[in-house]
Amino acid sequence: MRYRFTFLAGLAVGFVVGARAGRERYEQIKKLARKAADSPAMQQAAGAAQAQAASLARSAKDKVAQRLPRITEKAKSKVGGTLHDRIPGMRTRDANGHSTADGTYTGAPGTPGTPGTPGGGN
Predict the structure, then answer these.
(1) N or C: which end of the chain has fewer CB within 10 A?
(2) Three-state SS across 44-59?
(3) Contacts of 18 (CB under 8 A, 6+ apart)
């Protein structure tokens, strides 16, 4: 309750101060923020941060790709069948997101096993 009151008090103070500053101060802050964002130092820092984030995302993707087969095999061995076979009343969905009556998955169009596609089922 104390944190909620503190937050609301801060919100009220911010609103009053912002309203008193008016449109001129808002425009001044906006101009300063744009100038800072356009500065070469900020551009360089943003580029470095973007490169670092891309590198971290790539390494995370590689780690997941390496571990995923082991994780799925462990899950399959523990469950013993497909998940919808183990949970009563659970239904699967077709490629369009519609629930299938018999609990089968038809797959996305163009994937093997999908009726009506080359190499598909039925």
Answers:
(1) N
(2) HHHHHHHHHHHHHHHH
(3) 26
Q: In this predicted structure, what is the pLDDT of residue 13?
A: 84
Query: Is the Cα torsion angle 120, 105, 102, 70 positive or negative in sign?
Result: positive
- Identify the pLDDT of residue 75: 77
pLDDT given for residue 100 in this prediction: 65
Cβ 111 vs Cβ 104: under 8 Å: no
Q: What is the pLDDT of residues 27-69, one digit of tens each?
A: 888 899 899 889 999 999 999 999 999 999 999 999 988 888 8
Nearest to 112 by CA among 100, 102, 122: 122
Whole-angstrom distance, CA of residue 105 vs CA of residue 108? 9
What six digits make up the tokens of 78? Answer: 């523990």
SS3 assignment for the chain:
CHHHHHHHHHHHHHHHHHHHHHHHHHHHHHHHHHHHHHCHHHHHHHHHHHHHHHHHHHHHHHHHHHHHHHHHHHHHHHHCCCHHHHCCCCCCECCCCCECCCCCCCCCCCCCCCCCCCCCCC
